[in-house]
C-alpha cells in the first residue's frame, strides 16, 4: 500500500501531475485465501490487509438492491452545512454503503483531508477518519461508473469527461476498490470516467465548499503556494445525518 498524501486519492493525470493510490488486495484473516464478500449483488468484500479506520460491520446487501428514489443526507461541518442528494438509481450499491456508514457514524468528527486547486481539478476529498488519506471502512465494492458525461473541452484526446460543479463521487484505489472516501466537486473538473457518481451537493453546500476553496491549500515548508494538500481552512464533518422524507436544500 502506498503510504503518502496521495494514497486513496483520485486517479488521473491532470496538469502533468499523476494522482495515484494504492490498496491492499483482500485476503482472509488467516492469509490462506480471499475474504468472502457478502452474498448479494453488491458483493461488499472485507479487506483484512486494509482494516477499518473505525469499527464498522459490512453493509446489508439485499437482493435486489434498492435502486429508486433520492435520499437526503447533511454533512454538518464547522464551516457550514453540506446537504447531499444521493441518487439510488445512478449508483445503488454506493448509496447503500454510504448510508450504512452514515448510520454507523463513521463520518462523524472526521476532517476533509484534501483540497485540490488545479485548473482542471477542483475537489474537496473527505471520508477518512484517520485524516491521512489512507483510511477506509475495511471493505471494498464494485464501481458503478457514469456513462453519459460530456467530454472535457480541456482534453484534446477525448479521454476525460466533465465532473461538473456540485457532483458527489467516490474516490478509489483503482477498479472496484470503493470504500468510504468521497469527493465533492466545487468547480468543473476533467477526469477519466473512473469514479462513481452517486449524488449532488445542494446550494447551501456549494456555498460551504466555496468558503473552503477560497482559503486555498495549506502551505508547507517545501511549497508556500501548493495546489494540492490539506485545506488551509480546516474542514471537519461534525456529524453526518440522513434526513427524513423529502427534505430539500
Describe this structure in words.
The chain has 249 residues and is mainly β. It has a single domain, classed as Cyclophilin, CATH 2.40.100.10. 10% of the residues lie in helices and 27% in strands. It has two helices and 16 strands. Strand 1 and strand 2 form a beta hairpin.
List the helices and strands and how they pair.
Blueprint: E1 12-14, E2 17-19, E3 45-46, E4 70-77, E5 80-87, H1 92-103, E6 110-111, E7 114-116, E8 122-126, E9 139-140, E10 161-163, E11 167-170, E12 182-187, E13 189-191, E14 197-201, H2 203-215, E15 228-229, E16 236-242
Task: Briefly summarize what is shown.
By secondary structure, the protein is mainly beta.
Protein traits:
16 strands, ten-stranded antiparallel β-sheet, 249 residues, 2 helices
Question: How confident overall, as mean pLDDT?
Answer: 88
Range of helix content = 10-25%
Strand percentage: 25-35%
Elements, N to C (H/E)? EEEEEHEEEEEEEEEHEE
CATH superfamily: Cyclophilin-like
Please tell me what the overall shape is: globular
What is the annotated CATH architecture?
A: Beta Barrel
Work out the helix count: 2
Low-confidence stretches: 1-32
Top CATH class: Mainly Beta
**Class of secondary structure makeup:** mainly beta
Question: What composes the largest sheet?
Answer: 10 strands, antiparallel
**Count of DSSP E strands?**
16
Strand order of the largest sheet: 6-16-4-5-14-11-12-8-7-15
**N- to C-terminal distance:** 39 Å
Radius of gyration: 17 Å
